[in-house]
TrEMBL record:
PANTHER family: ANAEROBIC SULFITE REDUCTASE SUBUNIT B, DIHYDROOROTATE DEHYDROGENASE B (NAD(+)), ELECTRON TRANSFER SUBUNIT. One of its GO terms (molecular function) is flavin adenine dinucleotide binding. This is Sulfite reductase, subunit B. It comes from Desulfofarcimen acetoxidans (strain ATCC 49208 / DSM 771 / KCTC 5769 / VKM B-1644 / 5575) (Desulfotomaculum acetoxidans). InterPro entries: Cbr1-like_FAD-bd_dom, Cyt_c3_hydrogenase_gsu, Dihydroorotate_DH_Fe-S-bd, FAD-bd_FR_type, FNR_nucleotide-bd, OxRdtase_FAD/NAD-bd, PyrK_electron_transfer, Riboflavin_synthase-like_b-brl. It holds the Pfam family NAD_binding_1. The lineage of its organism: Bacteria, Bacillati, Bacillota, Clostridia, Eubacteriales. Binds 1 [2Fe-2S] cluster per subunit. GO terms for biological process: pyrimidine nucleotide biosynthetic process. Transmembrane segments: none annotated. Residues 6-97 form the FAD-binding FR-type domain.
Length: 264
């Protein structure tokens, strides 16, 4: 019998962590073994399906951090612990962890862009000897939008973690301003030994990459992760196509040498 590649698996919700008003992290019971940076197609019967990055995973579970923006994600946010989601995947290319070994890794993440890199940071948090140094530059719109607060504190014990918001308030004593300002302030002595990951909205990725290039980071040492609109996730429907690139198959993680031609 032919295999139905669109058939999803039921995954029970084990925990829901409300990060912000509109961003919830769902822990699902699942035996899926994704690569860091891959995504799943997540569905609710009779409602719809959407691509969501795996924000973390371990033995028998995985985590999805989902922003409420529309039909499917609104429905998912109303689910409770013990309810189920349906998943298929993992799909796409993840981050090339081997290329980061022994290097200085700088991660620039805007908003929910922190979700796909969370498992990368946790991996190096467990194995800090695998890299030379890790800098995380995280940007959010306001203090109320800051994701993974507990993890940011934990990561800052081992790594250079800097958080900035576009607009502060009376509760915020941290940085205010664009992530590109944080890049400008970084001292990068050995650019050949430095690797960069940039994840966030398209304009943020474009201008952050240009800032790193200003600092003489070679283009081949920079990776983007794209949140292009997708449908099938497996190269069949063409929804994600930019020129001749199927982002669902060749991405979502794409090296800047190729990715710079894909930014609208
Ligand atoms: C590879 C990949 C990984 C993703 N990872 C995550 C993740 O970890 N967490 C998360 O919250 N979201 C993620 N997204 C975005 C997520 O897929 C969309 O937010 C979701 O499809 C919206 O579905 P909906 O039915 O709730 O909204 P809809 O009712 O379909 O749309 C609501 C609004 O969101 C806009 N929208 C829909 N899809 C996208 C998209 N892909 N990018 C930008 N705007 C969109 C629509 O234009 C509309 O304005 C990812 C997308 C991709 C392609
Ligand atoms: S999402 Fe269908 S071809 Fe990429």
């Amino acid at each position: 019998m032919a295999v139905n590649v669109y058939a999803p698996h039921r995954a029970k919700i084990l925990n829901i962590n409300r990060q912000t008003e509109i961003d919830y992290t769902f822990t699902l019971e699942a035996d899926v073994k994704p690569l860091n940076g891959q995504f799943l197609e997540v569905s609710v019967p009779r409602v719809g399906e959407c691509p969501i990055s795996v924000s973390d995973f371990g033995e028998g579970y995985l985590e999805l951090t989902i922003r409420r923006v529309g039909k499917v994600t609104n429905f998912i946010h109303d689910l409770k612990v013990g309810d189920s989601l349906f998943i298929r995947g993992p799909y796409g290319k993840g981050f090339p962890l081997a290329a980061f070994l022994g290097k200085r890794l700088i991660i620039a993440a805007g908003g929910t862009g922190l979700a796909p890199v969370k498992s990368v940071i946790n991996n190096f948090c467990r194995n800090p000897g695998d890299i030379d140094k890790l800098d995380l530059l995280a940007g959010f719109k306001t203090p109320a939008d800051v994701l993974f607060k507990a993890e940011l504190q934990e990561w800052s014990k081992k790594f250079n973690v800097q958080v900035t918001v576009d607009k502060g308030d009376s509760s915020w004593s941290g940085r205010v301003g664009l992530i590109t300002n944080l890049v400008k302030e970084l001292t990068i002595e050995n650019t050949d030994n430095t690797r960069v990951i940039i994840v966030g909205p398209p304009l943020m990725m474009k201008f952050t990459a240009l800032e790193f290039i200003n600092k003489s980071i070679p283009e081949k040492n920079i990776w983007f992760s794209f949140e292009r609109k997708m449908c099938c996730g497996i190269g069949k429907c063409g929804h994600c196509k930019i020129d001749n690139t199927y982002v669902c198959l060749e991405g979502p993680v794409i090296n800047y040498v190729q990715a710079k031609r894909l930014i609208d």
